[in-house]
């Protein structure tokens, strides 16, 4: 069934010509031919979709043009066009009021062709093919699921929820940027209500299935006059109809259209019939997702926000009590960690006396009648030690807050004699948290710290992992120096502070075109004088770019997190352990106290600047065999970079640049010069042989500086769950050095995944 009626031939030809020109301009930018107006860089995709939003009847034209360009790129082996065109097509298809079955099948057939290509083409093709198969059977299903999850609308057939968390470091970004982003995200969040979103789902589903046979104006007017309870009723009816059809293996599209036609007629049954002609296809807005903006001021702020997101609103309490409960959970975490290390057996803690008559009469079976089975279950006692109730036990609020479909009950099930216990349903990841980081490499260093801390916490006590799908996104923002700009003047250029963004741009051209090119635009928009046009641009542009990125960017690029152990010159100071993601920098300390200088080494000043270092590292060779290398040299400093200079290099390798001091003897006397010594390794140890201290800085962040360091050890950071399982395995096989049992199948290294549109294109 063709859903769009051809307009006047002239208007249709002009629209098609304009859309084709915009698509070709977008492709030329991917080839490196940037638009003449630099302000248009990064906005070509946005202007294309906004052009269609203004005239939704042109959506089939855009989809048809994009399909032709995809087929042309596949025939001509222009693979770098495929993923950008496919993302643009799918975003337009989701927002389109109606797409014909023939055109949807054409896109589906092309996605199946991508399965013969290597990653990431086959991965993205498989994902989109599965979605299109459901969309063909139940039109409007992709739009419906996106709105339900992003707005957290209550729906039993599709109970998933999503939320976007934007984190910005106030010491890295200017106050104007933070204030502007906070204002824009707050405006986007309050611009739509649950009732309006339900109406959007109803109208879009009707028009997607019925096409021009749907009187959208009458439907909107009828929904507007209904009470909220009735709107929710019809919303649930539409969701049930679409989900049931889309979830079936061999569903009939005709029956689905008949069911929606009956719902459509029932909604309009109370409205008087009108004689006005149908207006054709009209667009239904795709509401902004649920976005919250956070200034990252506390180390555990990320974990707390995720816990609050998981906890249902029905279990919410006052903010002061909630903060206290979170603190109690943290204390309980530490106690639990200590108990795991000290105790050799598990103990069952009990708060009662252990005497049956002290039990409340309805403590275990509140709704079951008293019977012999009940008496036996009440007499079934577990051994334990008596313990007074403590405020620390308020951690129960986290357990009770997880009740819902597919979640384990908090009450312990007692085994009854002759009655088998029912198997508990597995936990479902019904929540998706999309974490968007705004800033430069320094905020990614903080993210690596927070992620490592979260993984350690989850290893001690699992709470978020089985319930939450965690996704990370990164938008570089530069141009306005923050409070730390003067503290680290040697690394304030955008090129040095945005190495991760540069790598992602080289690996994914669509990320470079849509995200990297905007790093200077956000500060400019934030510092524009207040005017109606300024708010129009920021509300439509910044929010839409973030929404497009998190909706379509699903391919992760995994970065290795490195662990560093720092030893200090003072024997009374305990070694420190930390992690870094991008860079570790070692520099000579400027001042040395007189008592730190060894009198026997007064002549060492003749050896030139720097300090003597002993470097032991595991050399990276082609065969992947470990080769230990040790060398002694004099150096003025070194840097370890985890981000390669080009996308072809391995991410799981450190590039170490050592500035070595070389002594030169000539006729005029003794002189010194420096040479660059380059190493490639994953494990390295550095020690000052003179016991002269040096300074260590992590991830270019002056707040993460260690002074008076005499030795350090760097290695890939291990996944905390792997370490725990490894230690358990070693208890039973003390002489086994290799991974055995379950440990063999667990991820060994801690990787930080950052989503882009294509991942790494080989």
From TrEMBL:
GO CC annotations on file: phosphatidylinositol 3-kinase complex, class IB
GO molecular function: 1-phosphatidylinositol-3-kinase regulator activity; 1-phosphatidylinositol-4,5-bisphosphate 3-kinase activity
Region of interest called Disordered, as start-end residue ranges on this chain: 353-385
Parts forming coiled coils: none
GO biological process, one term: positive regulation of T cell differentiation
A Pfam family: PI3K_1B_p101
InterPro entries documented for this protein: PIK3R5/6
The protein, known as: Phosphoinositide-3-kinase regulatory subunit 6
Organism (species): Meleagris gallopavo (Wild turkey)
